[in-house]
Amino acid sequence: MKPVRKAVFPVAGLGTRFLPATKAFAKEMLPVVDKPLIQYAMDEAREAGIEQMIFVTGRGKSALEDYFDIAYELETTMRERGKSLDPLEPTRLPPGAVASVRQQEPLGLGHAVWCARDIVGDEPFAVLLPDDLMWGKPGCLAQMVAAYEKVGGNIICAQDVPREKTSSYGIITPGAVDGPLTEVKGLVEKPKPEVAPSTLGVVGRYILQPEVMRILDTQEKGAGGEIQLTDAMAALIGQQPFHGLIVDAVRYDCGDKAGYIQANLALA
User: Fold this and answer.
1) What are the DSSP calls for the chain, one per residue?
2) Could you give the CA distance from residue 106 to residue 175 in angstroms, rounded to a whole number?
3) Sign for the pseudo-dihedral over CA of 192, 196, 199, 203
4) pLDDT tens, residue by residue, 198-235
5) 180 preceded by cis ω (within 30°)?
6) What is the mean pLDDT of the chain?
7) Residue 108: which of 220, 214, 229 has the closest Cα?
8) Do residues 230 and 202 touch, judged by C-beta distance below 8 A?
């Protein structure tokens, strides 16, 4: 069983729900208290042992790469003024730790993940959606990696959601339950409440085997006219171990204005 060393961050979205604030900068740079959303996701990945971060970006997202670069002018000025550089330490990564690739068309999450196929190669990998701020100790992905080391295969982060909101999530058809782990028998993208197989929804953390990229090579458009990652994952069920993990963490949906405000209040 290969270790999980790489993580994909799909960050090409336009952030239309936060216009006009996001007209000129990446929504992933929206601060929650004193750190941008992307920093929380990056810290979570590093805690879980991830060595290479892969950004799937779009036009106007250069601030994400700049943020994790060395800011010589800023650091020189701070040193000259006797100020500590400790606040900048989490933004400095080893050379080669960040790679990026463009998603040139907004064709969905499955397409965004597929864009990273050459960098991922033949290794298991994590996917983190920075809009979902997962707050817990140990971090959400660290808990998922610990589960992966026990059962292998594919692990998705699961959360019980209100039945009336199943049409906003990928929903799990559950199998055997072992504590926080639930065997995944099926996945349905955004089902209506009356036909949803459960209320166990998939939220923005995944550990996937590289075979999902081969499926995405020929993936057709699904719900919403987009190439859905859920559909590709569903094709792996029965071929590889597949589990949903209910993690000990609080989720803040920072792609939503109310969720973003809640995150700021809670973390402050």
Assistant:
1) -----EEEEE-----GGGTTGGGSS-GGG-EETTEEHHHHHHHHHHHTT--EEEEEE-TT-HHHHHHTS--HHHHHHHHHTT---GGGGGG---TTSEEEEE--S---HHHHHHTTHHHH-SS-EEEE-TTEEEE-SS-HHHHHHHHHHHH-SEEEEEEE--GGGGGGSEEEEEEEEETTEEEEEEEEES--TTT-S-SEEEEEEEEE-THHHHHHHTPPP-GGGS--HHHHHHTTBTTB-EEEEE-SSEEEETTSHHHHHHHHHHH-
2) 34
3) negative
4) 999 999 899 999 999 999 988 676 656 677 888 888 88
5) no
6) 89
7) 229
8) yes
pLDDT digits (tens, 9 = 90+) for 178-199: 989 999 998 888 889 888 899 9
Residue 61 makes CB contacts below 8 A (sequence gap 6+) with 11, 12, 26, 28, 55
Structure pTM? 0.90
Torsion of Cα atoms, 91 then 131 then 268 then 69, to 10°: 10
